[in-house]
């Protein structure tokens, strides 16, 4: 690739400048390889879908053998790797110079998630055929010196680099041939990887050491043709001027139920007099497996007279129940990602019922699930198809589910840090096992769980603990980040003893060091411009602590991105929603409900009900009957409000110019709302009429505010969701339409309670939010803040539309629904953190390309339709946690302005 | 793509006068009667040719409702040209011109070229503002005036290009200091612009600059 020589971006002289932009770089910048390198999912998708041949091109028209897959694997863009494999990229493609494959690269760079992807999903054959060389690659990274805690950062780096070189086999020098690398006989690929990857990070994560090496610019340490690969990084930075070739959205959620077993029950009491029947299922979503057990219906606690009969697997209504109805919901296992499960213990006595017990990564055991009519074996074999199950050496009945799960996450769990990473409140921490709150229990319970388990399991756990010792690297990062985080948050460099809260907060930063996802944090030294200069200055800061002197390796919020350590569960279904209600239909645990919605969103069929609860239309304590009555009451109230304008005579209207003007505007804007959405596509349809009615009625309801542009964007999703509660197809009868309109109106009104002041004529709330945003960026990412400040962008007006209508125009319609649910269910001010997350995701380009307000504005306007919701939500949450009390204070000021 | 200059335009005027349609007609040569209303600002670009020079127009299409005025004001900065649009079928949009003009004068640079546009000329049967009134207002305020139809494309090209021509002649006569970007003009490269290639830029087609290989070889 002679044309892009130098373009690795690792040294200052190679920072991308206009002068360096040669034709070769330009053509590389436009290639799928560049898109894969920078993790631009949509662009890769668009390019590869249009021209499948790009899957085998190196982006330079050469024969280097590089492919987009190799670039994406190396950079740790798991999503892009998955996409490319799905599109048929050849997993065996290898570079000409070094015969290394994408899997080699992923292993070398420490991208466990991608290695897993190859091992488990995509190309096991390919993986096996490559296993010998992979073994050598994989072992390069993790075995690192453990005594560097006291080292200065610079020494740390040097030490690692030396170690790195020491550990290279003879043939691994720059010109090394792969033959040399394949000398060792590997027993099996899985073991080879496991040996060094006692748990490959199962989310976007890369190894801290490889980050260091990649960022250090000392490519001497990078063996073989890896060095060559750094070419073209600059080119990847170059932006294309238009985004016209951006592909479509990712499409509907890829959710599949892979296993269902009916008649699996829980015995809530030791006496087994009662049982709760339910359905056990395994759900697969985006290659992530979830386990879920839901009781059949609220109150389905059965008296089991003939104990152990095991004959009845027919779900029964709650009629025979004399137990606490809400007991059933208490035991529901809402979808838990398999990554949160540590072990499954099976108990299959020759006589009596078979059962399994799940032990979570937190150490907590869930109540045993009894298979009334067998099926444990089938369950385990199904599970085995999707995730590696390792039979415990000590207890043949115990299976380790997650033996290759994220080691960092596990070690953090034992440090009480899970809560931070999962970001949610530890809702269910009070009792031993209700509601299966995924990963939020304290260490005491971890111990407790171990003690509660049987001996075999305990032995197993202690073995796991031993394995953690191999992960001292992660622990060191945790420690160092405690200090870096305290610096970042302005608490000064000295921290006499780490406060628990600080430790919690820092865990996210620690995880970040282990797992920059490439979108924001990778390659900080690649950046150019004043921001980078500042950053370099920052990175030379040292934090002096009791434990020694540390260099602050990576600063700012970028470091914590991509580190949420839980998988998103599938959306809340109607059946699952019902498990949150007691027999009378009261929502028993609002916080758990909100957390569930926040994590996974809501399925369309459950949305009308869930939205009314989230928006406060229904009181959580209300019974089903009360809510039914409320609906009727609201319908009447709406009808009355609507008649206020419907009943206006011509003469009356003629005397009310304000009303006429607003009415005209509403009528005009209703036709200009969500034009392309199928629901509104047909002009003058019933949907338009209903939307018009809702907005006109709101004008009467809130005459001080009236109608302001943007409100139709908020009303239309409300209408869409409430319309979905009524059977699809054709025109609604008048009465039905009135009902839908009424619910939509009250939903909209409740939403406006939150958003109203965004639309006030003095724009005070908008300015307060922009100001809060500015403070948050200052807090979370000082280099970015300095960059924006230097280029006159501190007004943050480029975020105006995002905040005004909560990203309504930035995402596809269905994604907006998901986003809003998450915002309503999340912490106050989460929308601000979503904005920060967007900026962080594009930090690198902002720092390297944006040097004036107009460019920033254009950049942000053009992000519309190109943002990816789930990573943003995840990172917004991480950022909110990371910002801690300081962040909460900032948000509080803007929230106060909103009220 | 190479260009001699880049001009920043801004389109302003009441809501619903057809600002977005004008932009779409100019950039894509099509009329889309129904499209989502503009919130904040949208953006479009097109290359034109004035006196043999390639000029890139970067056009900002703003939201019209008065509640967005404070945000719209922040977009004026650095605009070389403005299209001030009203709807000939709605008198109030004409009557609001004065306040728009005041905003523009206050927040834009004084040398900004403003074109007054009476849009929806195809709806002559519903006309509420005469051509003479438009001309009169333009004359009084030193603006250039055109009646356009985004629907039939009448005068749309002219509106944008005449504005560019006016800006270009101001450059030629030295009204603008093109090195000062607050005038909304950027000197591009290639195509033999008056100022030639800006230092530090490379024309596509030139040989790649010889790298000194001191750093990483």
Automatic annotation (TrEMBL), chain A:
For this record, the Gene Ontology CC terms, alphabetical, are: cytoplasm
Entry keyword set: ANK repeat, GTPase activation
Write down the Pfam families for this protein, in alphabetical order.
Ank_2, PH_RBD, RabGAP-TBC
Q: Which residues form the Rab-GAP TBC domain?
A: 601-827
Residues annotated as region Disordered?
305-324, 515-538
- Outline the ANK repeats, range by range: 64-96
| Regions of compositional bias (Low complexity) in chain numbering | 522-533
Quote the InterPro entries the UniProt record gives: Ankyrin_rpt, Ankyrin_rpt-contain_sf, Rab-GAP-TBC_dom, Rab-GAP_TBC_sf, SGSM1/2_RBD
Q: Which GO terms describe its molecular function?
A: GTPase activator activity
Classification via SMART domains: ANK, TBC
Q: Which Gene3D superfamilies would you find in this protein's record?
A: 2.30.29.230, Ankyrin repeat-containing domain (1.25.40.20), putative rabgap domain of human tbc1 domain family member 14 like domains (1.10.8.270), Ypt/Rab-GAP domain of gyp1p, domain 3 (1.10.472.80)
Q: Do you know which PANTHER family this protein is assigned to?
A: SMALL G PROTEIN SIGNALING MODULATOR 2-RELATED (PTHR22957:SF502), TBC1 DOMAIN FAMILY MEMBER GTPASE-ACTIVATING PROTEIN (PTHR22957)
Q: What is this protein called?
A: Rab-GAP TBC domain-containing protein
| Species for this entry | Chlorella vulgaris (Green alga)
UniProtKB/TrEMBL annotation, chain B:
GO-annotated cellular components: plasma membrane
Q: What Pfam family is a match for this entry? A: Ras
Subcellular location per UniProt equals: Cell membrane
Q: Classify the main location.
A: membrane
Keywords per UniProt: GTP-binding, Lipoprotein, Membrane, Nucleotide-binding, Prenylation, Protein transport, Transport
Q: Which InterPro entries does the annotation name?
A: P-loop_NTPase, Rab_GTPases_membrane_traffic, Small_GTP-bd, Small_GTPase
The record gives the membrane topology as: Lipid-anchor
Which GO molecular function annotation, any one, does this entry have? GTP binding
Instruction: Tell me which Gene Ontology terms the entry assigns under biological process.
Output: protein transport
Region entry Disordered: which residue ranges? 196-217
Is Metal-binding a UniProt keyword of this protein? Answer: no
Per the record, the similarity remark reads: Belongs to the small GTPase superfamily. Rab family.
According to its UniProt entry, the function of this protein is described as: Protein transport. Probably involved in vesicular traffic.
Q: What is this protein called?
A: Uncharacterized protein
User: Which organism is this entry from?
Assistant: Chlorella vulgaris
């Amino acid at each position: 690739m002679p044309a892009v020589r130098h373009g690795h971006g690792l040294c200052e002289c190679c920072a991308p400048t206009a002068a360096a932009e040669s034709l070769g770089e330009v053509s590389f910048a436009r290639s799928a390889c560049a898109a894969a390198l920078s993790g631009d999912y949509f662009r890769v998708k668009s390019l590869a879908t249009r021209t499948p041949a790009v899957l085998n091109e190196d982006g330079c028209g050469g024969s280097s053998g590089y492919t987009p897959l190799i670039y994406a694997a190396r950079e740790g863009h798991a999503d892009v790797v998955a996409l490319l494999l799905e599109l048929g990229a050849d997993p065996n493609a290898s570079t000409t110079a070094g015969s290394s494959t994408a899997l080699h690269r992923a292993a070398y760079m420490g991208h466990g998630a991608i290695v897993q992807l190859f091992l488990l999903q995509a190309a096991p054959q390919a993986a096996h055929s490559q296993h010998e060389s992979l073994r050598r690659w994989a072992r390069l990274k993790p075995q690192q010196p453990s005594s560097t805690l006291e080292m200065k950062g610079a020494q740390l780096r040097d030490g690692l680099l030396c170690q790195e070189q020491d550990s290279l086999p003879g043939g691994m020098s720059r010109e090394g041939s792969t033959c040399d690398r394949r000398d060792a006989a590997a027993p099996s690929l899985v073991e080879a990887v496991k040996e060094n990857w006692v748990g490959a990070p199962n989310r976007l994560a890369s190894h801290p050491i490889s980050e260091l090496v990649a960022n250090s610019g000392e490519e001497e340490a990078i063996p073989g043709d890896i060095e060559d690969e750094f070419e073209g990084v600059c080119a990847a930075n170059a932006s294309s001027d238009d985004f016209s070739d951006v592909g479509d959205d990712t499409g509907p959620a890829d959710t599949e139920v892979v296993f269902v077993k009916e008649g699996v029950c829980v015995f809530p009491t030791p006496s087994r007099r009662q049982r709760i029947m339910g359905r056990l299922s395994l759900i697969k979503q985006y290659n992530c497996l979830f386990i879920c057990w839901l009781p059949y219906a609220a109150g389905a606690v059965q008296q089991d007279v003939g104990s152990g009969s095991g004959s009845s697997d027919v779900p029964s209504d709650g009629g025979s129940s004399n137990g606490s109805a809400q007991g059933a919901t208490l035991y529901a296992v809402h979808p838990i990602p398999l990554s949160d499960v540590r072990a499954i213990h099976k108990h299959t006595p020759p006589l009596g019922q078979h059962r399994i017990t799940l032990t979570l990564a937190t150490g907590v055991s869930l109540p045993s699930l009894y298979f009334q009519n067998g099926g444990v074996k089938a369950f385990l074999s199904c599970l085995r198809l999707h995730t590696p199950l390792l039979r415990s050496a000590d207890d043949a009945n115990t299976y380790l589910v997650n033996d290759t799960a994220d080691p960092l996450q596990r070690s953090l769990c034992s440090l009480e840090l899970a809560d931070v990473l999962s970001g949610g409140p530890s809702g269910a921490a009070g009792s031993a096992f209700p509601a299966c709150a995924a990963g939020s229990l304290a260490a005491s319970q971890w111990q407790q769980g171990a003690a509660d388990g049987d001996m075999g399991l305990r032995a197993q756990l202690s073995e796991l603990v031993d394995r953690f010792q191999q992960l001292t690297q992660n622990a060191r990062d945790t420690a160092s980040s405690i200090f870096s985080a305290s610096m970042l948050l302005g608490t000064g460099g000295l921290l006499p003893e780490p406060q628990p809260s600080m430790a919690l907060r820092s865990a996210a930063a620690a995880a970040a060091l282990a797992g920059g996802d490439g979108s924001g944090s990778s390659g900080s030294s690649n950046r150019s411009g004043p921001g980078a200069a500042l950053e370099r200055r920052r990175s030379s800061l040292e934090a002096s602590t009791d434990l020694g002197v540390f260099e602050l390796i990576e600063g700012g919020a970028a470091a914590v991105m991509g580190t949420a350590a839980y998988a998103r569960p599938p959306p809340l279904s109607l059946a699952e929603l019902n498990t949150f209600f007691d027999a009378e239909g009261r929502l028993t645990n609002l916080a758990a409900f909100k957390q569930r919605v926040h994590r996974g969103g809501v399925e369309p069929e459950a949305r009308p009900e869930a939205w009314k609860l989230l928006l406060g239309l229904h009181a959580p304590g209300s019974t089903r009957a009360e809510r039914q009555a409320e609906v009727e009451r609201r319908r009447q109230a709406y009808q009355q409000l609507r008649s206020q304008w419907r009943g206006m005579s011509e003469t009356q209207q003629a005397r009310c110019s304000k009303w006429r003007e607003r009415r005209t505007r509403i009528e005009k804007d209703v036709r200009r709302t969500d034009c392309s959405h199928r629901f509104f596509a047909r002009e003058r349809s019933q949907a338009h009429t209903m939307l018009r009615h809702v907005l006109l009625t709101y004008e009467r309801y809130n005459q001080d505010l009236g109608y302001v542009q943007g409100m139709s964007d908020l009303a239309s999703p409300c209408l869409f969701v409430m319309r979905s509660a009524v059977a699809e197809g054709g025109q609604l009868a008048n009465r039905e339409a009135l009902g839908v309109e009424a619910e939509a109106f009250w939903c909209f009104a409740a939403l406006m309670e939150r958003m109203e002041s965004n639309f006030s004529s003095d724009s005070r709330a908008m300015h307060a939010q922009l100001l809060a945003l500015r403070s948050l960026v200052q807090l979370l990412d000082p280099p970015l803040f300095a960059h924006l400040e230097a280029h006159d962008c501190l007004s943050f007006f480029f975020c105006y539309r995002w905040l005004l209508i909560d990203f309504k125009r930035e995402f596809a319609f269905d994604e907006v629904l998901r986003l809003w649910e998450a915002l309503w269910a999340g912490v106050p001010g989460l929308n601000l953190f979503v904005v920060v997350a967007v900026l962080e995701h594009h930090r690198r380009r902002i720092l390297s390309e944006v040097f004036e307000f107009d460019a920033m504005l254009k950049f942000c306007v053009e992000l519309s339709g190109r943002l990816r919701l789930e990573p943003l939500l995840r990172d917004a949450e991480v950022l909110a946690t990371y910002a801690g009390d300081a962040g909460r204070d900032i948000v509080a000021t803007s929230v106060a302005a909103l009220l | 793509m190479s260009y001699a200059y880049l001009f920043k335009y801004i389109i302003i005027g009441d809501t619903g006068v057809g600002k977005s349609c004008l932009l779409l007609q100019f950039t894509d040569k099509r009329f889309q009667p129904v499209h989502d209303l503009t919130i904040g600002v949208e953006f479009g670009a097109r290359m034109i040719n004035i006196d043999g020079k390639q000029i890139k127009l970067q056009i900002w299409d703003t939201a019209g409702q008065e509640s967005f005025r404070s945000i719209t004001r922040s977009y004026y900065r650095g605009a070389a040209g403005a299209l001030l649009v009203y709807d000939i079928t709605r008198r109030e949009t004409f009557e609001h011109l004065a306040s728009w003009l005041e905003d523009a004068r206050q927040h834009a640079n004084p040398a900004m070229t403003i074109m007054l546009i009476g849009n929806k000329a195809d709806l002559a049967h519903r006309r509420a503002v005469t051509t003479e009134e438009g001309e009169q207002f333009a004359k009084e305020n030193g603006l250039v005036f055109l009646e356009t139809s985004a629907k039939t494309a009448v005068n749309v090209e002219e509106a944008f290009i005449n504005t560019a021509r006016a800006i270009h002649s101001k450059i030629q006569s030295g009204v603008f200091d093109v090195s000062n970007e607050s005038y909304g003009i950027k000197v591009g490269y290639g195509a033999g612009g008056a100022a030639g290639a800006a230092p530090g830029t490379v024309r596509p087609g030139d040989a790649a600059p010889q790298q000194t290989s001191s750093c990483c070889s």
